[in-house]
């Protein structure tokens, strides 16, 4: 118990096992996923890529901050636990939805 307190910075801190990440697309649509607090930033990039209509280079931006580095950093160390909102910024502009047809179909069912 004292080892856990030392690792997480002291008594009274909440320990989260999961986090909800919402990614805002340029057209205002949000893609939401649940991740382990010990997942990496790279796993969020892969999640977003799996939802895209076509592969394209993009950045994930923390509002009011800089782009996330696509690396093995833990989500908790990136400040994305217990929740996080990111803005997707495509390297090139697109006049159509970036989401795959499958994801758009799920949206229309809601």
Instruction: Give the mean pLDDT.
Output: 83
H/E series, N to C? Answer: HEEHEEH
Structural class from helices and strands?
alpha+beta
Global geometry: globular
Strand line-up of the largest beta sheet: 2-1-4-3
Rg over C-alpha atoms, rounded to the nearest angstrom: 16 Å
Report the span from N to C terminus.
44 Å
Strand content: 15-25%
Number of helices: 3
Low-confidence stretches: none
How many beta-strand elements?
Answer: 4
Helix content: 10-25%
Largest sheet: 4 strands, mixed
Walk me through the structure.
- The protein has 110 residues and is α+β, with helices and mostly antiparallel strands.
- Helices cover 24% and strands 24% of the residues.
- It is built from 3 helices and 4 strands, in the order H-E-E-H-E-E-H.
- The chain has helices at residues 2-7, 41-51, 101-109, and strands spanning 18-24, 30-36, 58-61, 83-90.
- A 4-stranded mixed beta sheet has the order 2-1-4-3, with helices on one face.
- Strand 1 (18-24) and strand 2 form a beta hairpin.
- The longest helix has 11 residues, at 41-51.
- The relative contact order is 0.23.
- The mean pLDDT is 83.
């Amino acid at each position: 118990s004292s080892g856990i307190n030392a690792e997480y910075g002291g008594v009274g801190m909440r320990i989260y096992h999961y986090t909800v990440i919402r990614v805002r697309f340029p057209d205002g649509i949000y893609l939401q996923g649940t991740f382990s607090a010990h997942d990496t930033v790279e796993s969020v990039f892969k999640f977003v890529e799996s939802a895209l209509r076509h592969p394209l280079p993009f950045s994930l931006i923390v509002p009011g901050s800089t782009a996330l580095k696509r690396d093995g950093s833990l989500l908790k160390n990136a400040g994305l636990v217990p929740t996080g909102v990111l803005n997707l910024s495509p390297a090139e502009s697109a006049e159509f939805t970036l989401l795959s047809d499958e994801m758009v179909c799920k949206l229309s069912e809601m």
